[in-house]
Amino acid sequence: MPFIEHVSDADLERLALERVVPALQDFGFCYLDGVLGEVAGGEVLQQVIDMHQAGVLQDGRLVGSVPGVHRSSIRGDKIAWVSGMERGCEAINFLLNMIDKMIAVCASRLESKKIRERSKAMVACYPGNGAGYVKHVDNPNSDGRCITCIYYLNKDWSAKEHGGVLRIFPEGTSFVADIEPLFDRLLFFWSDRRNPHEVQPSFNTRYAITVWYFDSEERAEAKRRFKNLTDSSLKPSS
């Protein structure tokens, strides 16, 4: 995988077109190493550690619940949502701007997607007590999420010792892809049912930042469905 420390916009464009787009089209995922470099990546890591130590990260939520099943048996991470504009998130904002530039280049070449917006950034920590996240799909119900991007922040990580591997089960294939959450690694993958994935139990503190890019047409349709559902539920019964 290419190392891309201190790259220019032209280099980002080249990597997006030559590496990310073909890999997404052929395999459904792609990762790049050395995205920010030791110094800038270290600044992002320190800001995430500061958030964790300040108690900003809270238990990750589930959509719905299963009777008799505890949340932590499904997902054991602690998270916070940030825009990057908050005080103390300057390096995170730099990272998000870089990812935005790469996705903007990719968007014109990827299927018929119209990618014009993204989520806030989800800063996540698995606390190292064996916590993970069971096999799931980010966008199983056409909510608009198109591409998942995860930036990892874990120095001296050993999958054998620490676990914490993200395992992707690409749809229609007989293989799995194991992605170690190594420092300064950026992962891209389709958010829909093409890429079920899990976070295997982590036995050391594991940090990551995730953003989701939206297909604007699918997102608008999802919002219409939600509005119609909400409106119908508010109508008085006759």
Automatic annotation (TrEMBL):
It is found in: Nucleus. Residues 117-215 form the Fe2OG dioxygenase domain. It is an enzyme of class 1 (oxidoreductase). The keyword Iron applies. GO terms for cellular component: nucleus. One of its GO terms (molecular function) is L-ascorbic acid binding. Keywords: Dioxygenase, Iron, Metal-binding, Nucleus, Oxidoreductase, Vitamin C. Its cofactor is L-ascorbate. This is hypoxia-inducible factor-proline dioxygenase. It comes from Pagothenia borchgrevinki.
